[in-house]
Fold each of these.
Amino acid sequence: MKVSMVSEHASPLAALGGVDAGGQNVHVAALSAALARRGHHVTVYTRRDSEDLPARVQIFPRLEVVHIPAGPARLIPKDELLPFMGKLAKGISRDWEKRPPDVVHGHFWMSGLAALEAVRRVAQGRSQIPVVQTFHALGTVKRRHQGIADTSPVERQWLEPSVGQAADRIIATCSDEAFELKAMGVPQERISITPCGVDLDLFQATGPAEEHERTYRILSVGRLVPRKGVDVAIRSLALLRDAGFHDVELLIVGGDATAVESDAEARRLLSIAAALGVRQHVTIRGQVRREAMPGIFRSADAVVCTPWYEPFGIVPLEAMACGVPVVAAAVGGLRDTVVDHETGLLVPPQDPQATAEALARLLADPGLRRELGRAGQQRARARYSWDRVAAETEKAYLQTLTAKAAARLAGARGLLEPAEGAAP
Ligand code: UDP
C-alpha cells in the first residue's frame, strides 16, 4: 500500500521534550517505520519549520519525510498553525499529482483538515482517497481540563468534530477516547481502537543504568507543560519526606532544549519545590535524546506519571518495557496500559497524598518493585510492539479501503438500477 501520513507540527525528525514535541512525533515516526518494514511505501508530510530542512529526506527504503512550505519556515506554536493548513493541503495534493496514495492518515485535528482538503483537491474525476484520522488529543477534553488556559484556536470547537465526521475511519488510541468520539458524533462503526506502541529494541530492562547519589530515584518524563502534572510529583516528594523518606531524588526529564532557567514551567516547578523545602531533591534535566532515555529509566526505582488527563501516554510504556514500576494517575490511556497492582499503581488524578502513598509502598518494598517491573515488561512486550500496532493499523486501513470500495459499488449499482416508476 502507498500510505501518506500528515503530521502538521510533529515531525518524526524533531528533537523531543519541547512544548509541542513528544508522543505524536514518536508515534508518527515509529508507526511509519513499522509500516515500511511491513512492505508499505510511507511518506510523512509535515510543515517545513526551519530554513535548513531539505524538501525531502529518505529515512530508509520505503520511508520518506517531505517538508511542505506552509507559513514561515520557523517553529510556530501548534495552536497558531491553523491559518497555514490550506497551504499545507495544497503542497500535499501537488505532491500527489504523479502518484496519489491508497490511504491518507491524519495525525492531530489540523492534519485531518489538511488531509481532507488535499483529498478534495485531487478528487476531481477520480475516486476519493480514504482518510483515516488519529486525533492524539481532543479539544473537548482539553477545554474541560484547561478551561480558559486552553490556547487552541476557537475554530477547533467545530472543525475538530467535522474532521471526525468527515474522515472515513478514526483510530482512537484508548477506550476513553472512543467514548469521547462517540459523544462528538462519530458513529461507533467508524471507530477503531489501536494503542500507541513502544520501541522494544531500545527500551529494555537489561543494560547500563545511570548512576545517582541519593538512596532512591523517582523519575518524571515528558513535555514540561502544566497539564502533565509534574507539580503533583513534587508535592508528593515533600509528603514522602514527611513520611520518613529523606533521601529521595525526583529527576524531571523534558523541557527547553537550551537552558532550564529560560523555561517558564521549569521555573514554576522549581519554585513549588523551594516553597515545600525539597528544592535540593529536584533536578530538571531538560531535553534528553531518545537513545539516552533507557539508561535513565533503568536508574529509577519508580516512574511517576500524574497528568490531569492523557490521550495515551507513551512514557509509562517505556518505563514498563525497562522493567520499572509506574505510579500513574487513573486517566485516559493510562487506565489501559497500567494494570493496577500488576504493572504499577493507579492513583486518582491531581492527588499528591495518594501519589506519595503509592510511591512509599514501592520504595519500601524492593520485592514489589521487582514483581511489578517484571509484569510491566511482559505486558509491554506482549501487547505494545510497534510491529503489532502497525499490523492493527494496516487492518484499519484495509477495512477503510474495503468499505469505501463497497460504497462506490453500491453507488454505481444505484445508477444502473431503473428509477422508481420508470418503464422496465
Ligand atoms: N521524550 C524524550 N526526551 C525528552 C522528553 C520526552 O525522548 O526529553 C519522549 C518520551 O520518552 C516519550 C515522548 O517523548 O517517548 C513523550 O510521549 P508521551 O506520549 O508520554 O507524551 P506526549 O508528548 O504525547 O504528551
Amino acid sequence: MSEQATSEQTTASTEQAPQSIVNRRQPYPEGFLATISQGWAERPEQLPPLREQAPFAAARRAAVSAAFPGKRLVIPAGPLKQRSNDTDYPFRVHSAFAHLTGWATESEPDSVLVFEPRGDAHDVTLHFRERADRTTSEFYSDATVGEFWIGPRPALPGVAGELGIATAHIDSFVSTDDDLVVDEDDELTRFVSELRLTKDEYEVAQMRLAVKVTSDGFDDIIRELPRIIEHPRGERLVEGVFHQRARSDGNWEGYDTIAASGPHACFLHWTRNDGAVLPGDLILIDAGAEVDSLYTADITRTLPVSGTFTPIQRRIYETVREAADAAFAVAKPGVRFRAVHEAAMEVIARRTAEWGLLPVTAQEALDADRGGQHRRYMVHGTSHHLGLDVHDCAQARREMYYDGTLEPGMVFTIEPGLYFQIDDVTVPEEYRGIGVRIEDDILMTEEGPVNLSADIPRTADEVEAWMARLRG
Ligand code: GLY
Ligand code: MN
Ligand code: MN
C-alpha cells in the first residue's frame, strides 16, 4: 500500500510532503477525481442506543464537576505515538479520558473532553475529529484518518447518542491559559486518579470479564506446552498463544506478557521472552487481557513445565502461596492497604530464616529500620490497584494509596513471590535459578475480599491436576 497525495500536493508541493510519501506518490488522474466522491449510498440515519457504561461515566463526570467549580477542565485522549517512520503504535486512549467518557477502544486520537464552567456546574462537551465527508480528499487520500484507508470512523451525532455527551468537532476546541489539563495540572490529575480507586458495578463486571479471558489464555498455554517445549524460543510461543486469546476475546494485553522460564523467572519484568522452555524448569507467566472497555486483568501463575513440581520447587511454591493466603486473610474493609504487603512479607521472612538463608532472625529482618534482609528474595510490593491501567490510580496520594484503607469496590492484586537468582551465592545451589510468583486479582466487598481469579488453579496440587487435565 502507498499513500496517495491529493491533486494539490501532487502538482504544487512535492518538496513539502514527508519524504516517506514523496518517493512513492502517484498522481490522481482527472477521471478519478471527477468520480471518486460520487456513487456512495446514504448512510443510515438511525442513531445507536445509549451504551450501558454511559450512566456510570456520567456519575464520574458529575463528581469531577463538583470538585472543580468555576474551572475549565480539559481531559485529553492523547495522540498517536510514532513507532518508526510513518507507522504508529496502535492507539491506546488515556485512561482518565476513557473513565470519564465511557469511550474506550474506538476513541479517536487527539480528542478532548472539556468541562466548561457554567455557574457552579459545567457544560461538558466531547470534541473529536469527525469523519470527513466523502466529497473531501481526506476520505480517499489520508492514510491516517481517511475512511478509505482505516475503515468507518465516528460522526458527532452517533457518539453523542452512544455516550450521552454533547459532541463537537475538534476544530471548535480552543485551549486557554487558565485551563486545568490532566497530566499538566497536579490537582486535577490526582483527583481523576483517586476517582478510580473504587470501582462501580460496570467496572467490576468488566474486571470479571478480563479475568475470564485471561484464565482462558492460561488454559491455552498449557494445552500448547508440547509445541512450546519443542521450540528454541518457547517463551515467545507462550507470549503468542496468550496474545491470540487476548486479541480474539478482548482488545489487547494490559501490559507486555512476562513469559519467564527457568532462571528468567527471577527477572521481575522479563518481557524479552526469547528463551527456551525446558522440561524440569518452572515457567512464570504474568499476563493480563485488556477487554474492549480497556479494563485489564493482571495474573501470574508459575507452572512446572513437565507437569509436576520437584520437592524444592514445591517447597518454594507453597511458601509463596502461604504468603498470598496470609495477605488475603488480613485484607478487610478498613484495614490499611500496606497491611496486605506486611502480612505477605512476614511469611517470606519467617520461611527464608527457617531455611537458613538470612544472616539474621526473621524478627530482626522484619525490623522497619534495620531489617529487610529477606527482601533480597522479593524486592517488589505485594499489591497494587488494578483497573483501566495495570498499575491503576498511580497519581493517587500516598495517604489514599499505600497508607490508605481498603474499601468496598477496590480492586487490587496480591502477588508475593520468591526469586533466587542463578548466581546468588547466599543460597544453597538447589535454590538457584528458581523464581515463583502467584498473582491474583482481588475485589474488596462489604463482606470481605473476593478472589476474582480463584478459579485459576493456585495450590501446587491444583496446578499439577490442571496441567494433567489439559495436557491429556
Ligand atoms: N504485571 C506487572 C505486575 O504484576 O505488576
Ligand atoms: Mn501486578
Ligand atoms: Mn503481574
